[in-house]
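Q: Protein A?
A:
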Amino acid sequence: MSAAPGWYPDPGGQAAYRYWDGRAWSAVTATTPTAAPPSGAAAPFGPPSTGVPGAVGVPGATGPAAGTGRRRAGVVGLVVGAVAVLGVVVLALVLVVRSLTASAPVDAPPPTAPATSASPCPGTQVSSSGSAVDGRGRVVSGKLSYPALGRPWSAPISDSRVPFGRDVRDQVVILETRDGRPSWEASVLIARLLAGDGFFGPQQGAMIVTSCILGRFYGDAEVKRDDRVNRSYAIDGHPGWLIESHLRYDIPDVKAKGELLIVAVVDVGGGEDGLFYASIPDTAPQLVDPARKALAQLDVG
């Protein structure tokens, strides 16, 4: 079947359209296939192939003009065929590369390291939740309490150095001064410790708090620790942990060279622990007994 008259891609290879009148190609080209048909005789370019419009020419009219058309069409056919083969090769390469890319494992980004606290021993969160001494004469912090100590012990005060502590109630006896200011003291205190503050139970809590106290209450001094007691401990059925140690140190301008350290952590319920802490320098052995009595009379309520 011959191609119908109309504009087709120029068989000469130009980026234009050439008109086919049903017998021969026109000498006129156009930039769009919707242009009006040209007037006058068609140029001897030879007919396009039958079938789909736009194909290159095949043998048609006889004579020299027809031969010229066949030679030009043959060259164009070779070029178009080569381009088609090249396109197939390129497409195959693209598909192979895409397949390899899709199946190749992709290195996952390195996991982000979890954020860490600037200090493993946070300080006290100061808060006020009721009177330090209740109507029974007991020093109270959360659910933990003990009978208030009399003179020479001070009235309960707060202490912001207690690691993980809240509502700290501290009774002290000043033992040494420097330039008219207190420099060394004995201490008995209680505080609230909330679950999630870096530990998950009384034993771990007692160990962590003890380590933090050694790093915070004695500055940069080297402190040697000799544990005398490290065991489970209970108050009215509430589980806890007790640590008693003798500390040794040599701090400039401090007469004391050691002291008794007592740390008790008790699970008081409701996701909360209570802390009892006592620090009695060796230069004040008379204060050990009041500290032990306070420990023995701890109450959870």
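Q: Protein B?
A:
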Amino acid sequence: MQEYSSYKEKMQTRLQEEPLSNLIIENNGQIIGTVGFYWEHKPTRWLEMGIVIYNPTYWNGGYGTEALTLYRDLLFEKMEIGRVGLTTWSGNERMMKVAEKIGMSLEGRMRKCRYYNGTYYDSIRMGMIREEWEALCVTKG
């Protein structure tokens, strides 16, 4: 129980310091997931974002695309960052597709560095720089 208390305390402190670091995704009043970011290297403003949708019932329903689009926009609007990144693995085709849909580009592929269920997978780095986001906003606006 002490581990949970420690985790909860750390999470509350982080949310007080960086309120945008973890947000819930709701559908009809029900929490279905979260979006969040972490600093790969805060002094250089290197930020990575991610998403978790807990229930597979909500996968492939557009919730991830909508949530990540809104979160990407929020991060660029509210934070002084030049880039938003996302790291996944080659076994997660849905995540790679969502990243592409929201305007991210493939920036890196580390081959066979993730081992899961007897198979090696690539680590995939996707990202979008501020100038690409601004151009996207002009196109949409």
